[in-house]
Design goal:
8 strands; 13% strand
Length: 308
């Protein structure tokens, strides 16, 4: 199993230096992270929305060690929202945020992350869009869900992410499947111990279907985060069985992966949102993309060898 090895490497400073220094790395990273600053991303936003797609934007960066860095992360999102406002795209472009980037792991991190993310949620609401709180490793989730609940008091459209490989998630899904909620379901992309998470792909897939069924039968708005053709087909069937219209759920996929499928689903009338990341602190995000799908790793290795 290469996935856990790659996830461990995502936390290694030595591997970060090695991979960052490889001449081919940037060319490959650009497949998944198409820019470092907002100006790089604006043409991507315009192109994808013109094709009938929607987006959720992620300013990459997780290893925050000072309150000043957390404030800078907040300001980066506020600058992004200003650009989206100028494009007049409203809810077609939302934001995804990791609370670790807002200082969650620092002393007093829960309060700090809430204080930093609230202005981002407020600014998003002011231009007619919203924010989804990304899930990180299992030790952060109680804090994330508490912040999500607090934000929804004033901004009920605030979304959150749940991860199928965690044992706790079926209970979380039942709690979250309420009117007005927005919940993105993903398989999970962090290295988690066997005490808290399924380790077998088949078990994870089965959990994904059970949880998605709960969300589809609930009163909230499910967001299907998967590139798996089988799970996409199952999601469509669950939606039909639950009597959901095409605008009562959406698919979400990563920029750079299965682009033809993005367009196919949109052409069929589905809401299709592309998770698009940008920024300079790309390493952790990039490594998790490699860990999630063997084809991504093969693509990276072939590129390195062909340019070696």
């Amino acid at each position: 199993m290469l996935g856990p090895v790659i996830l461990a490497a995502s936390r290694s400073d030595r591997m970060r230096r090695l991979i960052s220094a490889a001449p081919v790395t940037k060319q490959v990273v650009d497949r998944f992270i198409p820019g470092e600053i907002v100006a790089d991303i604006v043409p991507i936003i315009e192109d994808l929305t013109a094709k009938g797609l929607e987006l959720t934007m992620d300013v990459v960066g997780e290893d925050i060690t000072t309150p000043e860095q957390a404030t800078a992360a907040r300001d980066a999102y506020l600058a992004l929202i200003d650009h989206i406002k100028d494009l007049d795209l409203g809810p077609r472009v939302e934001m995804s945020v990791k609370l670790s980037m807002f200082g969650q792991a620092l002393p007093g991190g829960h309060e700090l992350a809430l204080a930093n993310v609230r202005p981002v949620v407020e600014a998003a609401a002011a231009i007619g869009t919203t924010v989804t709180l990304d899930a990180e490793d299992h030790t952060t989730l109680d804090s994330m869900f508490a912040i999500h609940e607090e934000l929804r008091k004033d901004f009920p459209q605030t979304g959150c992410v749940i991860q199928a490989y965690l044992f706790r998630t079926e209970a979380d899904a039942r709690r979250l499947a309420e009117a007005g909620s927005r919940v993105r379901l993903v398989k999970g992309a962090y290295k988690e111990p066997a005490e808290v998470a399924y380790q077998n792909k088949h078990e994870i897939d089965k959990a994904y279907v059970r949880i998605l069924k709960t969300l589809m039968e609930g009163e909230g708005y499910p967001m299907i985060g998967s590139h798996d053709p089988r799970l996409i087909s199952i999601a469509q069937e669950l939606a039909r069985t639950a009597g959901r219209k095409l605008d009562e759920y959406e698919f979400q996929m990563l920029y750079g992966i299965r682009g033809d499928e993005h367009l196919r689903l949109a052409a069929e009338g589905h809401r299709m949102r592309v998770y698009t990341a940008y920024g300079t602190d790309w390493y952790g995000y990039f490594m998790r993309r490699l860990a999630e799908k063997p084809a991504n790793l093969r693509f990276f290795v072939r590129s390195m060898l062909s340019r070696g």
